[in-house]
Write a structure and sequence with these properties.
It comes from Brachypodium distachyon (Purple false brome). GO terms for molecular function: 4-coumarate-CoA ligase activity; ATP binding; CoA-ligase activity; trans-cinnamate-CoA ligase activity. One of its GO terms (biological process) is phenylpropanoid metabolic process. The chain is built from 16 helices and 28 strands. By secondary structure, it is an alpha/beta fold. It folds into 3 domains: 169 residues, ANL, N-terminal domain (Rossmann fold, 3-Layer(aba) Sandwich); 169 residues, Rossmann fold; 104 residues, 2-Layer Sandwich (GMP Synthetase, Chain A, domain 3). The strands form 6 sheets. Strands 1, 2, 13, 14, 15, 16, 17, 18, 19, 20, 22 and 23 form a 12-stranded mixed beta sheet that branches. A 4-stranded mixed beta sheet has the order 4-3-12-11, sandwiched between helices. A 4-stranded parallel beta sheet has the order 6-5-7-8, sandwiched between helices. Helix 2 packs across helix 3. The chain is globular and about 70 Å long.
Amino acid sequence: MAEPPPAGIDPRSGFCAATRTFHSLRSAAALPPESLPVTAAAYAFSLLSSPLTDRPALVDAATGIAVSYPSFLAAVRSLAGGLWSSLGLRPGHVALVVAPSRLEVPVLHFALMSIGAVVSPANPASTAEEYAHQVALSRPVVAFAAPEVAAKLPNHVRRVVIGSDAYKRLASAGVDAAPPPVAVKQSDTAAVLYSSGTTGRVKAVAVTHRNLIALICAHSENRETVAADAIKAGEEPPPPAVTLVPLPLFHVFGFMMILRSVSMGETAVLMERFDFGAALRAIERYRVTLLPAAPPLLVAMVKSEEAHRRDLSSLLVIGVGGAPLGREVAERFAAVFPDVQIVQGYGLTESSGSVASTVGPEESMAYGSVGKLASHLQAKIVDPSTGEAVGPGQRGELWIRGPVVMKGYVGDDKATAETVDSEGWLKTGDLCYFNEDGFLYIVDRLKELIKYKGYQVPPAELEHILQSHPGIADAAVIPYPDEDVGQLPMAFIVRQPGSNLTEQQVMDYVAKQVAPYKKVRRVTFVTSIPKSPAGKILRRELVQQAVSMGASKL
């Protein structure tokens, strides 16, 4: 049970009028003392209960190969020994990891963190130029790479090919040579994660062991809350989750989901790359109970015939993140899949993952909201035009403060100072508001708002409307430059197979549901919408495409 908030803090919204600050109303799980030397990996393993012999830690979705918890822990210990004794890795050394989501990758991540080395996972689909930029930022002493991507890495970086004989020797070297105990501070960097670069060039985000431990604690507390509520209602607590992880492990969402799954003794089913049909088959085959996903996946499930043919009865929860989920999409999904609870959440690389989420069936009905502030966090909503913090129901930029806020951007003190102020407030760049009940709503990225005749038009709002049209499979809205009005809302549309939807029909559909200044004024049809690995629309690419096409072709 959450304790009553201190005097001066509204018990409904968590808002303190005196400081203009929102406070978390979640039960605060006890964090270990900051002075205690412990790695995120060691902390995660300390939460595991014994025995776990009957439950896989990891499963390969494509092959069905499973790794039990005893095997996983033994593999981590052995590889950690090899990294220490044979490779000479020490606390603070950065290791680039460039590979698809294969079974070896979580073992490698945990082994590196357990000896105090810094995990720096990168996208295996990146270009040689992008790797050069990332390497210049994080300065790795070694790169672990899948065979198909090793050649793209800069020549001066020492390479170990995952799965090679050299790697296998490393992985077995520590069987008889465990690394010595290392005193790693919680404030030390555990991982360098690369921001998605949707609004600029990729940055290297330093995440500490303390950041990750705070996240683990918040997830653990949420699980205990759900279990307690179930018992109170006379129901069985939910079983340990079987999570399908269609997310890349180099992205903060996927990285965090594996850390969460292992710390709770659950099962993670890994997919090398996302494929909608393969995901449905995996849910059916492995009796998946939890599916983390971006909003377009919910749209696809509602509209897919195959989703209705498959036995998806095991699925209990779909965890939505990566982009705002519209009320219309959530309600349509709930109507088609009434037994699947939608858990909405919000986080960013700079916050090491989750900032807010819905917990339990009642909160999950707050469609359109990303939930309540996670434990140990504070927030402000700051009016961008005045710089003043505002109260419930008022929009502004979300600022957060607490133990999940990043250490900073590696090699970019200027960007760090612009993003995290001297009091520890992280400026998220997202336009948001809290309602009177403490639920957080994301309106859009501040930088992505379309400026039409001085009005601000949130692209996400129009995308939610477009995705509710039965003839539209996917949609994105961007600002199209215009001399007279500044920017026009322009829609890129992927039609449903067999649909003959016209530009005028698209514009009319939106016009009926929004104020005149929000109307879509240009439409073009495409075969796909470019997105980041986490499902975020890459609007910069679409803007460039629209401008290069020229007005005559639109």
